[in-house]
Structures are given as C-alpha cells and as structure tokens.
Amino acid sequence: MPPRSASKPSKKRSNPDSVTSSATGPVPSAYSKKKASKEVDETDKLFDKYANASSGVIDPEGIEKLCSSLEVPHTDIRILMLAWRMKAERQGYFTKGEWRIGLKALKVDTIGKLKKALPELEKEVREPLNFRDFYAYAFQYCLTEDKQKFLDTETICQLLDMVLGSTFRAQVDYLIDYLKIQKDYKVISMDQWRGFCRFCNEISFPDMTNYNLELAWPSILDDFFEWLREKQA
Amino acid sequence: MDQGFELIDAAVTKLKRILEGKPEPAFGSHEYIENYTIVYNMCTQKPPDDLSQQLYDKYGGIFEDYDKHTMLPSIMEKHDEYMLRELSRMWDINKIMVRWLSHFFFYLDRYFITRRSLPSLTEVGMTCFRDHVYNNVHFNVKQVIIALIHKEREGQQVDSALLKNILDLFVQSGKGSMERYEDDFEKFFLQETASYYSRRSSSWILEDSCPEYMIKSEESLKKEKERVTHYLHSTTEPKLVEVVQTRLLVLVAKQLLEKESSGCSALLRDDKIDDLSRMYRLYHEIPKGLEPVAKAFRLHVTSEGNGLIKQAEDAATSGSVEEQVLVRKIIDLHDKYMAYVMDCFQNHTLFHKALKEAFEIFCNKKVAGSSSAELLATFCDNLFKKAGNDKSNDDSTIESTIDNVVKLLDYISDKDLFAEFYRKKQARRLLFGKFNDEHERSILTKLKGQFGGQFTSKMEGMVTDMQLAKDQQTGFEEHIKNGNTGKPKGVDFTVNVLTTGFWPSYKTSDLNLPLEMVNCIESFKAYYETKTKHRRLMWIYSLGICHLNGRFDPKPIELIVSTYQAAVLCAFNNTERLTYQELFEQLNLSHEDLVRVLHSLSCAKYKFLKKEPASKTISKTDSFEFNSKFTDKMRKCGESRYVPLPPVDDRKKVVEDVDKDRRYAIDASLVRIMKSRKVLPHQQLVSECVEQLSRMFKPDIKMIKKRIEDLISRDYLERDIENPNTFKYVA
C-alpha cells in the first residue's frame, strides 16, 4: 500500500476550506498520481487563497496576508528564505509555479504545516553551502529593474540587518553605520555584497588583525577597515 | 761487492767535500762513468747477488745521515736571518747532492724503481730533507720570515732572493700540493697581515682625510702586490689582496665614505675628480664594494636636487614658480653628475642606476602646488615662445635644451600629465603666436623616439594641421580670386581647420555673428565642401581674433579683439546705445561669457565702450554706449590674446582629463592581461598592470582596485568563488 502522509488529518484540522476526500483506488499508480495531483490541488488551493484573482499571482498584499497567517512579520528573513526555496524571481510576488516548487520542496500543503516547516527551513538555509547561495539570492531578489546591477545603500543596510544581523550583530551594526556616513559609494554591487559576507566570516572582529589591505578585498571594505581603525584609535 | 760500497762511500765523501766548499778537485768525466758503472754492476748481478735494494737503501741512508747530522745542526745553531741563510745554503746543497748522486745511482731509477714502483731518487732526496730538516725548522723559519716582512713593510730593505728561495722550499715540501706552504707559512702570514692593516687602518681613519687615506690604501695594495712578485707564491696574491682590502677598505667603508668635509659627498661637491676616480678604482676590485659608494653618490645627488626644489619653493611668489630657472638648474645638475658617472665611475651601471634613482626622487616632487610634469611643460612653452622672438637663442642651444628636456622627462613618472599640459600649451602657441615649425617638430621627433608614437601622435597631428591650414588658406584665397564664391567684401578672412581629437576640446557657443562675418563663414563653408565631403565643420568662435577699424573721434585706431568682443562692438555699428538685455538677446552668448566680454570692453584697460552706471562690475541692468572719445597713443590696441582661464582652473581640468584617460588605460590594461592569462591572482594582476603602464604613469593602487571591481560589475572579470583573491577572465 502506498504510504500515506500524515497530512490528511491535519489538513482537516487547519484547513477547513479545502475539500478533502481521499480516494482509495485499487490501482496503486493511479492512486499515487491522484494523490500527487491531490496534493497539487491542495497546494494550488492554498495558493488561490492568497493570490490576486485577476493577476493570478500572489502579490505584495497576498504576501502580507500569508505572513500574518504564518504569524511572521513580513520583513522577517524567513519569508526571504521561503522565496529562495521557491526560487522566486520577482520581489513581492510568488507565481503559482514558484509556489508549487517551494511547498513541494518543503513537503507541506497547508498553512499549519508550512508554519511548522519554517524552523526546519531556516536550519537548512543556514548550512554553509546553502547560505552562500541564499545570501547571493537575497541581493538578486531585490533587483527590481531589468538589467539592474546595483542596489542603493539604504536597501543594503536593511538587507544586511535581515540576513546577517542575527549571526554577526557587531559587524552589521558597524557596517550599517559606515554605509550611512560615507559618501563615496551610492550603490553596492553583487561583488561588494558578497564581500560583506566573506568579511564577517573570515575576519576576526572587532580587532580585524587578520585583515590584509593588499589582498583583493573590495575597496569599500578597505575603506571600512580604515574608517573603523581610525574610530578605534 | 764490499769494494763496490767502499768506492761509493769514497765518491760520496768527495762530493760532500766539494759541496762544503772544501778544496777538492771536481769530478772528472771518467770518475763519473766509473761511479755509474759500479752501481750498474752491482745491480746487474744475478740474484741473490743483486744489490739493488741495498743500493737504494744506501742512497736513502746517505741523505738521512747527512741531513740529520750535518745539515740540521748547522741550521739550528743560527738565528734570525742567519738561520735563513744557512737553511738556504743547505737547501741548495741538498739539491746539488741529489742531482749528482742520482746520476751515479741512475741505473736504479731506470729499472729497480720503476719495477717496484718506488719513489724516485730525486723524490727520496727531497723527502729526506723535508723529514729531517724542514719539519724541524719550519716553525722558527716562518717566524723569521714574517718578522722580515714586517720590517720591509716598515720601510727597511730585505733580501728578496733569500726569501724567495726559502718559500720555494716550503712549496716543494708539499710534494705537489701547496699544503705545506699554506699551513706552515701562508696561514700565519695572512693573519699577521690582517692585524697589521687593522692597526694601520684604525690610526689612519682617525688622522687622515678620505683622499689621504685612499692614497695610502692604494700604495699599500701596490706594495703588497709587488711583494708577491718578489718572493711570495703567486697563489697568495688573491688571498693577500682580499685581506688587505677587507681591513683597509671594506670594514671602514661607512666611516670613510661619510667622513665630514672629505668624504664622498664633499668630493662630489668639490669636483675632486682624481680622488673620486681613485675611490672607484679601489672599490671596484672588491665584490659588492661599489655599493656603498653608489649609495653615497645617490644620497648626495638626491639632497642636491631636493635643495633646488626647496629653493624654487621659497622663491615662488603667489604660487607661480620660476620654472625657467629651476629646470635649467636641474639640467645643469644632471650634466654635472652624469659627467662624474662617465668619468670617475667609468660608466658603471651601478652609478647610472644611482643617478636615475636620485633624479626620480626629486623630479617627482611638487613645487608650490605645481607638479613637475606641469613645470616642464611650461618650461618648453616659454622656451619656444621666446625662441620666436629672441634671436640670441640659436638653433643649436635650443636643440640641446630639447635633448635635456627629453632626458628629464624620463625621470618623471607622470609622463601622461606632461603630455596633456604640453598639448594644451602647444595649441595656444600654434593658434595665437608665431611658432617655429622646426622646433615644434624637433621636440616631437625626440619625444617620439624616446616614448613611442602614441605619446606624440596628437601633438604631431596638431602641427601638421597648421601646415595643412596654410595650404588650405592659400587654396581658399585662390578660390575667391577666381570668383567662385561671393567674396566677403572688404574683409580678410583666415581659417584654421583643426582635426578634432588632436586638439584639446574647446568650448564654443552659438554666437550670432555680425552679417559681414556670417558671409565669410558661408563662403568658406562653400569652398570647403568642394574640397572634402562628409566632414562637419564646427566653428569655435571663442578662439577667433578680429582686427577692427575703430572710427573714434580723436583718431582711427585698429582694434585687435577676440571674436566675441568684435561681435559686441559690431552691434554698435547700428545703434549708439544698447542695454545688457538687448545685447544678450541679440548675441546669444551665455551670461557668463557676456559679462566677461563686456567687462573687458568697458571696465578694463581699454574702454571702447562706456558703461552706465560706471561701476566696476557688470550687472544685468547696465547699458552701454560706443565710446567715441576713446583714444590711445598707439595705432593698434586691444587684448588680442585668447582670454585664458585662470591658471589654477586650467590645471584642475588637465589633471581631471588625465585622470579620466588613466582610468581607461587601466581598464584596457587589465582586460588585456586577463584575456591572455585567463586566471590570475590579485597581487600579480596589480603588479603586471603597474608594470605595463609604468611607461606613461605610476598608477594608484587604489584606482586599480576600483577599476577591477568596475570590470567585475561589467562582467569582464569574475572572482573565483573558491579563491576570492583570484580573478578569471569572462569570455
């Protein structure tokens, strides 16, 4: 007998709108297909709950609704992580395809399960290899225009806080201070963005004794280093 | 048999007597043969009567006996030089004895010795002497020799031949190797020499001046080398020279060269060519010996150069440097010290390098805010401007000055900055003054030779343009004469067509010209179109010059003014008065330009216009009137020169332009390098980039870093994910 996920009972509990009836079919493959398609249906129905009826995608409003359902502030990093999981392309919007991908990867199809899956997701994202990818994604995600390559410093400050704030509080605080004060850089590139993460990971803080100006750190970090050194003196 | 031995003994005794100088008839040839035959017979007996072995032993025994019992005692009972003499005498005797006896015993040499591979008779003789005489006396002998050498060093005479003979004994005692000579004599000799010269050097360095010390050192070295030829073995020479040089020159090099008032610096300052040549000669021999000298040279030249810079700074009034004076002085400095390098220092690369490094240090200093690149460009500008007017500066002096300029430019790292300043000034020279075509071309040819065609291409283009413009003008005038276009009535019109890109960029404006000028423009345009298609002419009115006839009441005066000024003045041809606003609308100049022009015409030296109110500044409510009362004692007046921007602004613009070009150059270089290397670590990329660009300028490392980042964001390069200090080329 095909394994039944434990979803059925919980589905009934937390998702009263969905119509569930599991069909026990004599043919296993048909059953699994049906089950799969049923899961997809569940996922789709969930999608429709938040999607904008006319555009057919979840727009920023929908996302806000989703966030309150998940009881997560909508500037929370976990939404970004979810977007990453979905490989969402456009900031503030989830397409049906992306939704499906994300929820399937998390193996959830109800809000309750999704909420429960969030801590798991976070743990997964924080694994070093995934985090690298996620970190770069975070930058990419904020690029709204076609062919846009840079983000303004204000957005960067917010992103830094969101993405690195919990792990590297001190560095992020100083970086944000610096970015606000300095006048040389109005926008940040992906390379510089990546540099920030590398900096936090590799350089001991706040002494920064292993920072080497002669290496290929992006200039903005060289300037940050010198600025901080001067402050510490 | 016994008889044989007896005969031999007799012969030996006879020999000894001869050698000792006792009266004894010499050996006749029959005795000689007899002795030989005795030995021969004794050797050719059938065994066991073959006495070869016994003879051989006897031979050895003779020497041993004589050495021990006669030679050694007689040597030992003497002292000092007498001992040496006795030793020498004994050594000579031994040699002769060996010769004679080995003749007698020769048959042994031929068969017995070779068959048994025994040492030859000569060898035996020598070995005996060494074992029984030399080994016992060499220590004392060595002491005596060294004492004698010391005496000789102090100025006394010694018997060279004696010493030579004795030392030869030492050599021979080594039996093929120099061991005995080296261990029993040379080692001690060198030690003694070292301490001798140490003492000398300590006292000389305190008492003597540098030249005096050097002369004494040179003398000492000469004497020591003579000593070698007189009696030391030739292999001692290099070791001896090294010891003396070390004690006299190497260990005290710093003290010597830095001696106050007589050291290297002072000698350079006072032109002491002989002393400097001597210094070079002495230190040249020593490996790496010239380095401290070259260093002293470099430091001296650097401080001289810095001194000149400081002088110029102090003399600079209100930010303007007397660059003519400074550059000439630097050129003179260069000639002076180059002469030293070629003469005293024999053109040695170490000194060329020292000179180069010294000049690179002070030639790149800023003087009162102006970079050396700018100063050099200004120098050239003034040189050529004056040359036009002043016939006393003849062509060959100009040529040699140009050569010097090119040499100096080599030391300046911001060559591109020089090029830009030079280009701007050249443009002014070409357009507004008399310029000497030959001079202009000459310096460009020389610069091209030294720095490549790309360096001078724009400037050369400009000079060529002027030539073409002349031809063009002739063609234009012909064209008009032939009645092809409406001849601009009563207006002589000259046009210079400049190729964009060669010339600096100039601001222009859509000035509304007076009708007469418009006609000129149109007629030239028509002519030009017949000559070339597909070219657009952009008229730069800001650079033009006009000669106007000013019909003033007192007397007519020819006014030489800029085109803008002329346009303003011509506006008054039709009306007596015009307000600022009217002029502004009529002429279509910017407020900035109009204010400047009106100021020059009404508030400056030549007041061609009257201004109401008669204040010192132009305001938009002013009105102007033709000043019919104007007069001047001259027949021509006006500020004909292109009103230049104040020098500081100009400089800023040049520096900005050069910075921009550098950014492109760095980009191009980085891409070029990465394209060929594909993958390269950061440090190498930076250093290769610096290397590539060093011909033109010294790139700022920070700028290179920023350009790399820019290229990354433009997807020319990418950072290696695994190794973020390495870059990869993105195809």
UniProtKB/TrEMBL annotation, chain A:
Residue intervals of the DCUN1 domain: 38-229
GO cellular component: ubiquitin ligase complex
PROSITE patterns: DCUN1
UniProt superkingdom: Eukaryota
SUPFAM superfamilies: EF-hand
Listed GO biological process terms: protein neddylation
A Pfam short name: Cullin_binding
Record region (Disordered): 1-41
One MF term in the entry's GO annotations: cullin family protein binding
Role this protein plays: Neddylation of cullins play an essential role in the regulation of SCF-type complexes activity.
Protein name, entry field: Defective in cullin neddylation protein
Native source organism of the sequence: Brassica campestris (Field mustard)
Lineage: Eukaryota, Viridiplantae, Streptophyta, Embryophyta, Tracheophyta
Automatic annotation (TrEMBL), chain B:
Residue ranges of every copy of the Cullin family profile domain listed in the record: 371-602
Recorded GO MF terms: ubiquitin protein ligase binding
Organism: Brassica campestris
Protein name: Cullin family profile domain-containing protein
Membership in a protein family: Belongs to the cullin family.
GO cellular component assignments: cullin-RING ubiquitin ligase complex
Keywords per UniProt: Isopeptide bond, Ubl conjugation, Ubl conjugation pathway
Listed GO biological process terms: jasmonic acid mediated signaling pathway; protein ubiquitination; ubiquitin-dependent protein catabolic process
Superkingdom: Eukaryota
